[in-house]
UniProtKB/TrEMBL annotation:
Every HTH cro/C1-type domain range: 8-59
SMART domains in alphabetical order: HTH_XRE
Record's keyword terms, sorted: DNA-binding
Protein name: Helix-turn-helix transcriptional regulator
Matches recorded under Pfam families: HTH_3
Amino acid sequence: MNTRLFDLRVAKNLSQSAIASSLNCSQRMYSRYERGEANIPLSLLVEMAKYHHTSIDYLLNLTDIPNSYPQKKR
């Protein structure tokens, strides 16, 4: 189970359907990501990190620091 995705969603009091809609995926597929039953495509992982204002490292349990990295100047 990807407890980070679950915890972030619950903390914002959102449904799986609401997040899935924002990420342009089905609720069923989002549920599979949240339960760890499916690998999250990199492009969707980037969108999830942006959506939750966190880093991919945090979503993948590589760090316990939830803050996102500063954006690069273009």
